[in-house]
Structure formats: C-alpha cells, structure tokens
C-alpha cells in the first residue's frame, strides 16, 4: 500500500473531511452560546450566567472524560470514536432544544460534554497521529486551517437560523447536521482501525543503538516528564485563551478603549490565526514543534504586554500578534506530544493533556470575571502575562530534537526495517 506522501489527493480528502466534522462539532458546542445565549435568555427568562454555566458544565465533563476518549481511540480507532461523538452531539443538542427547566438544560450540556471529550481537536489530532504516525505534522496544520473557519461559518449560520426558526429550531438543525453530515463523513472518510501486528513490545537492539546515538539525553528522560511540562504550558495557554475569548470586549473597555476598537480587535484574531497556520503548514516542516510552541507563547506574552499601553492601534496590533500566536499553538498542541513522546498510545497522551486544558477553560472565565471586578483590568492583564511567562519558561525546558528514532524504539520499531515499514503502511488511510 502506498504511503500518504504518494496519495496526496486521498490525504487531502481526509483532512478536509475531518475539518468539516470539526467545524460542525465546534459550532454545535463551544461556539453555540456566543450566538444563542441572548435569545435563549429572552425566551426562557434564565440569566446569562445560568446559561453560560451550562458550557462550563460541558467543559468539566469533557475534561474528566478526555483520557477515556483518548484510550478508546488507541483501542478502537478514531473512526469509531468520532462517529459516536457525532451521535452524542445530536443527542445533547436535542436535549437542549427540548429543555424547559435549568436541570434539563444542564443535563443536555453534560451530554454535550461527553461528545466534546471525543469529538473536538484532541480526538481529531489523535486520529491523524494514529493513521500517519510521525508524518502527521503537516496534516494537523492543515486540519486546524480548515477547522479554523468554525466560528466564521458557525456564528452567521446560527444567527440566521435563530432569526428564521428560533433558537430551538437552530439546535435541531445543528443536531441534524451532526447526524446527516458529520456522522457519514467520519464513517466514510476515516480508515478502519487496524491494530499493529508483528511489533515487539521491546526495542530491538539496532533500534536502541540508533536511538542512543541520535539523542541520548532525550531518551534518558521519561516521557511522563515531557507530558507534565507540555500539559503545564498548554493549560496556561488554554486559561488565557478562554479568558480573552469571553472577556475581550469588557477587558478592553475597562482599559479605556472604545467598543469599536474592541470589535475590530476581535475581528483580526481569526485572519491572523489562518495566516499563521498557512505559514506553519507550508514553511514550518523543518521547525521542531518545541520552537513553534515557544514562538506562539512568546507572541501571546508580547500581545498582553502591549495591551498595557492602552493605545487603540497598539491594541489592534496586539491582537494580530495574539491571533498568530494562538494559530501556531493550536498546531503545536497536536504536534508537540507527537514529537517528544511519540505516536505510541497517542490518543491516551492527547486525552491526558486535554483534561487540565478543558478544566482550565471551564474555570478561567468566571475567575477572570471576579479578578476584573475586584482588581481591575491592569492586574488581570498582568495575571494573564504571568501565566504566559510560566508557560514560556516551561517550554524552555523542552528539547528541540526530533524524537522519531526514540518514538520508534519505544514502540519496538526499527525505522529502517522492513517490519516497521510494513506496520506503518498498514496504518495509512485507505
């Protein structure tokens, strides 16, 4: 069987298919309340705080279940897990559409949280890592490029649906899209899982020797050490991203900037992310993910420090820088564990990393709201800058040498061996 490098059209179809599935999943969950919270509040009489709390409940649920979803991908493959997530997304959306009490509403979000644990970026990254192994970097960048249009397409689509069929109708349409579009895409576009065969559980002598000669220091450090450091820096960044996503307008208003400036600052984030991901996809192949992560984190820190100046144009430039950094970090979120820890049990690794990130995304906005109210915008920006500094410091401890030989040795694969090539070919998409 040909490798993905000789099947560019097939690989492109896989990336586009996964990207479309991600657009539907993100628009059906994380971005849902950005459009529908106010109409839901007006219709039900429930407070915005109560409604937004549903998303927090979903994120907490997703964080708790993410490691289980990752292990399920390792055992059963991304095809099965992503397909099941589409069905569960539809169930959760149907429950929200029919909810007439806060208890029913929160139960719907818990079900959506189950779907989010198995259907967002971490699951899609794990699927690509399982199919492509260490060759997944460019594909992950391509996936984030396509899926980056989730808010661009999802927000206006949800707005139109709310205006035409109401918020309950919009939720029913989103449920139908998960069943009629995302589910078939996952079943048809993703190859069936094929367990690795003919692979020893221990490194061969040749592989071990090659590994020692390639990167002795890196091999000597347990993968769990890198997992903790990667988790630290990604969790700090997740808290920053969630805070700015929710409080951007309020934060910029509190430092004296006009609402129009805040709106423009929010609008430039998306294009900056897309441009950064394009550059990463086409020119970042030779750049180790550790350096990509450092650049992305440094961009976030620089953007936060620029905000302290309080000038409108500087603030807009700051969010261009922030958007570019966030775009690079989204790619590094998938490629950094692959490079430093390896492709063996990649789903479990991504699930372990997703748990603290999702919990941070659930906790950061309400905690930031308290900080903004009690200490003011400058202290909140400084607190976010401190998180970025901790994240950057953590990234400086990460190595920037490729772990391809090490990952192969840990999985018992000799990269130059015929058995390894055969095993790798069996894991390619068909």
UniProtKB/TrEMBL annotation:
Q: Does the keyword Transmembrane helix apply?
A: yes
Q: Which UniProt keywords apply?
A: Membrane, Transmembrane, Transmembrane helix
Regions crossing the membrane: 12-33, 45-68, 80-97, 103-128, 140-158, 170-191, 291-310, 316-341, 378-398
Q: List, alphabetically, the InterPro entries matched.
A: MFS, MFS_dom, MFS_trans_sf
Annotated Major facilitator superfamily (MFS) profile domain ranges read 14-403
SUPFAM superfamilies, A to Z: MFS general substrate transporter
Provide the protein name. Answer: MFS transporter
Instruction: State the species of origin.
Output: Stenotrophomonas oahuensis
């Amino acid at each position: 069987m040909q490798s993905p490098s000789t099947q560019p059209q097939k690989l492109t179809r896989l990336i586009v298919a996964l990207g479309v599935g991600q657009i539907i999943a993100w628009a059906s969950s994380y971005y849902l309340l950005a459009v529908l919270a106010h109409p839901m509040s007006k219709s039900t009489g429930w407070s915005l705080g109560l409604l937004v709390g549903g998303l927090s409940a979903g994120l907490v649920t997703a964080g708790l279940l993410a490691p289980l979803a990752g292990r399920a991908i390792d055992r059963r493959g991304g095809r099965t897990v992503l397909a099941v997530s589409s069905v569960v997304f539809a169930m959760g959306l149907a429950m929200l559409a029919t909810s007439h009490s806060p208890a029913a509403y929160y139960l719907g979000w818990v079900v959506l949280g189950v779907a989010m644990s198995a259907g967002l970026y971490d699951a899609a990254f794990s699927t690509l890592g399982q199919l492509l192994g260490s060759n997944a970097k460019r594909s992950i960048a391509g996936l984030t490029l396509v899926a980056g249009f989730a808010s661009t397409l999802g927000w206006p689509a949800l707005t139109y649906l709310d205006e035409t069929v109401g918020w309950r109708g919009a939720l029913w349409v989103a449920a139908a899209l998960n069943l009629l579009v995302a589910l078939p895409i996952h079943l048809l576009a993703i190859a069936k899982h094929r367990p690795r065969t003919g692979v020893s559980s221990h490194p061969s002598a040749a592989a071990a020797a090659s590994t020692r000669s390639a990167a002795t220091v890196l091999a000597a450090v347990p993968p769990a050490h890198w997992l903790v450091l990667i988790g630290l820096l990604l969790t700090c960044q997740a808290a920053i991203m969630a805070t700015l996503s929710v409080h951007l307008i309020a934060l910029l208003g509190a430092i004296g900037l006009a609402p129009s400036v805040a709106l423009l600052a929010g609008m430039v984030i998306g294009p900056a992310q897309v441009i950064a991901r394009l550059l990463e996809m086409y020119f970042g192949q030779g750049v180790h993910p550790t350096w990509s992560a450092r650049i992305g984190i440094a961009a976030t820190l620089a953007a936060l420090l620029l905000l302290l100046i309080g000038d409108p144009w500087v603030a807009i430039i700051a969010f261009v820088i922030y958007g570019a950094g966030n775009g690079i970090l989204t790619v590094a979120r998938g490629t950094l564990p692959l490079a430093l820890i390896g492709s063996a049990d990649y789903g479990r690794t991504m699930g372990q990393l997703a748990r603290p990130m999702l919990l941070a995304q659930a906790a950061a906005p309400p905690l930031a709201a308290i900080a903004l109210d009690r200490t003011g915008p400058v202290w909140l920006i400084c607190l976010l800058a401190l998180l970025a500094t901790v994240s950057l410091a953590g990234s400086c401890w990460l190595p920037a040498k490729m772990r391809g030989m090490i990952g192969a040795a840990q999985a018992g694969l000799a990269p130059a061996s015929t058995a390894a090539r055969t095993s790798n070919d069996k894991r390619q998409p068909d």
